[in-house]
Specification:
It is built from 4 helices and 12 strands. By secondary structure, the chain is α+β, with helices and mostly antiparallel strands. The radius of gyration is 15 Å and the shape is globular.
Length: about 180
């Protein structure tokens, strides 16, 4: 069973995820910020998310640092009450991930794997049962480091600060549950 099949069982469809991804990238409804994280809210259907961009990005190919062109690099924790989604972790690396690859996530020495979406290969998600474990680790961590591989063979290492994460994710959750 694929990650998206699993997620579909939890009420999130690929079509919804693609439209949500577009809304998240284009939203101007920022309602709060705490250090390195921001909160956005959209309505109809209601959706709230905490989001941050990396503090450091390193791109390498064959062991050498290279300059590459990437789109937005963002990490999200999303709440969609109408789809029964609470605390879904996602990452967009700004490029299509290599087919069959995974994205590693390290938070203070605790490792997780994210699986690129087959329908939208610039996005990666953990298996749903890891979402809350990742959010908990992020609440207690100082940084999150994601390492992915592009379809062109570039390895990317993106380091996100977790300063302000707890307050921001709490605000996103509260705005979508009240």
């Amino acid at each position: 069973m694929t990650t998206w099949m699993i997620r579909s069982a939890f009420g999130a469809s690929v079509a919804l995820a693609a439209s949500v991804a577009m809304a998240q990238e284009e939203s101007t409804n920022r309602v709060g910020a705490n250090t390195d994280w921001s909160v956005f809210v959209e309505g109809d259907p209601q959706e709230c998310w905490a989001v941050s961009s990396p503090k450091e990005t390193v791109n390498t190919r064959d062991g050498r640092v290279v300059a590459v062109r990437r789109g937005d690099i963002l990490m999200f924790v999303t709440y969609r009450p109408s789809a029964n989604v609470a605390g879904e972790v996602s990452f967009t690396g700004g490029y299509p991930f290599a087919p069959g690859s995974t994205v590693s996530l390290d938070i203070g020495g605790t490792a997780f794997q994210l699986i690129p979406d087959t329908e939208n290969p610039e996005w990666a998600y953990p298996v749903p049962e890891d979402d809350q474990r990742i959010v908990s680790a992020m609440r207690n961590g100082a940084q999150a480091v994601l390492v992915g591989r592009s379809a062109r063979g570039t390895t990317t290492t993106d380091t996100f600060s977790l300063l302000g994460f707890t307050a921001t994710v709490d605000e996103a959750a509260n705005r979508c549950t009240s």
